[in-house]
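seq as requested:
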Amino acid sequence: MSELEGTVQGHRDGHGFVQRDDREADVYLSPQEMRAVLHRDRVRVRIIRYDRKGRPEGRVLEIIERRKTPIIGRLLHESGAWIVAPEDKRYGQDILIPKNATAEAQPGQVVAVELTEPPSLYSQPVGRVTEVLGEIDDPGMEIEIAVRKYEVPHQFSPETLAQAAKLPDSVRPADYKHRIDLRDVPLVTIDGEDARDFDDAVYCEPAKVGRSRGWRLVVAIADVSHYVKPGEPLDIDAYERATSVYFPRRVIPMLPEKLSNGLCSLNPEEDRLAMVCDMLITANGELHAYQFFPAVINSHARFTYTEVAAILGNTRGPEAARRHALVPHLLHLHEVYRALLRERGQRGAVDFETTETQIVCDDNGRIEKIVPRVRNEAHRLIEEAMLAANVCSADFIARAEHPSLYRVHEGPTPEKKVILQNYLKALGIGMGISDDPKPAEFQTIAQATKERPDAQQIHSMLLRSMQQAIYTPANSGHFGLAYEAYTHFTSPIRRYPDLLVHRVIKALLLGKRYQLGAGAGEEPPKRGARKTPAHEAAQWEAAGVHCSACERRADEASRDVEAWLKCRFMREHLGEEFSGTVSAVTTFGLFVQLDALYVEGLVHITELGGEYYKFDEVRQELRGERTGVRYAVGARVRVQVSRVDLDGRKIDFRMVRESADERLLSRAMREKAGGKQAELKGVQEADREVKARSRAAKGTARHAAQKTHPVKAAKSAAKKTRTRRS
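struct tokens:
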């Protein structure tokens, strides 16, 4: 059998997998094999067998590298022994702590542990407490746990802080050299109410494009590369982080605050250095010409999205009156946005209508409410302006044949394409995707189905069929946006790939070549010698992999914190009933999102009634064999909150028997989804009637006893201990 190397990924149920370095199929590790290794260890394994589905199972031959990062968990004192139960259940084993290695932490506190003895087939790992984080209920503790759990760098090095402290508080006279002075141009920033760092400023005016009418669109981006030089401490820390990480009420920035909120931020009425993309846009929304140049700007105003949307909606309102001098420029921005939007439609870019939510916390960092995040015309206006600048930067670099990082988003894999084709056919949708799908096909389906009650289900399947966007030097285009070349240029304060793109553009403007890690000091190669050396290509590939991994790490940490907050929030609603919508269907049950709270939980298949349910992968639904009852994405249900697992970040629901009114509503929705003539308005009226009757009957509904999932008999003794503690 073959041998290979990879990284261990533990599972909370005791087994694990080896993610192979060659990116082939993961290798399964049994619970017995996992006893001698830990989550994220690097190992060499031998494949010993394949299961009936052809999946490999392995045996660990050698532990190549142990993870040296601290493990976060709760310190417990049980039966005279000190142990730490890891917060990340993928570690699978409790850690023994000698009584003289607790760092005076108290039972129940959250601590960081360093291993002193690794696990073996016959013994648990042993460690010592290196940091006491505090009590589990301390405000912000969920963030402190997440940044360590996902190894998010959250402390700048002393060298970085010292370098940042030496930077000036404002632009120096010497910095104005070799820059275009745009301080008289009324550029403005448009951001959210809670924004503190301002990457971009915009301006638009009518212009002649050839013989026709068009616009001049100016996008000015903070010139971070002027202050963050390759190889310096600021750059080393920025590369390690690769992105800012956003949590409710807190941000882990990529750059120190003096830069991110001060010297680089395009604060109103302050001179700032910028890289400018100056574009000419035709009346049809096409990019006619562009140029890049370094500049000095002075933002004439700091707008919020809400304020701009109000001005665009009523140019005689109080918001417009306060900003009367800038209103004409906002109207020009809106005009060019409408043109760009038309071109987006003609290009066939995918634009799904999804509901994003925002967590509103109280002073203690606990959830006060969860509200839908409304996207208005101002959000879309800025988005289209940034897309235009990003496309220009990608085109500029591609034409120069200079290596860089592109933002690549590929379409469906062959496997996902077949699943999607079968799914659309099973729903009876009179259109599908071709064997070589184009973005316009996805957008056509999205537009044709947006009024259906199961539109959310269909759009979710369209979205999940696509691959994840990554950073890579190989330009494969952006499928979702329907661009042949696309990169990130517009957020260098919070994204390292944007900073690299700025450095490449600056080098090209000087007629030079940017060497990754060495600056823009090399002269361009001679004619006919444009091929990128292998080592340079490998450097750019490694940078793309690193930045993509850091982006995923940031997303995982943010989701973990939000899940913890939602679990904490839902503990106050145990036993309560809510209406919701099925958001996903799996072999083991239904995920339901509650209407009022925007929180998602699982209805396990054992809670669906006393019969056998079969998962239909094509239709993405569960169907009862005896009754024929079907549960698909988009179905309306009523559930009761039955269990909240704070450690596992899981919320469990149980199904509440439908009333006659709710069955009527569900039937109406199924008829509509099947192509019958029931109007959406009637469904919405039925929904309102159901809610009205539900409110009238509030307090009389019968609540079933709280019920938990059965514990598997094969759980180890250590896992049983943790289950009892939870």
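The longest helix spans residues 534-570.
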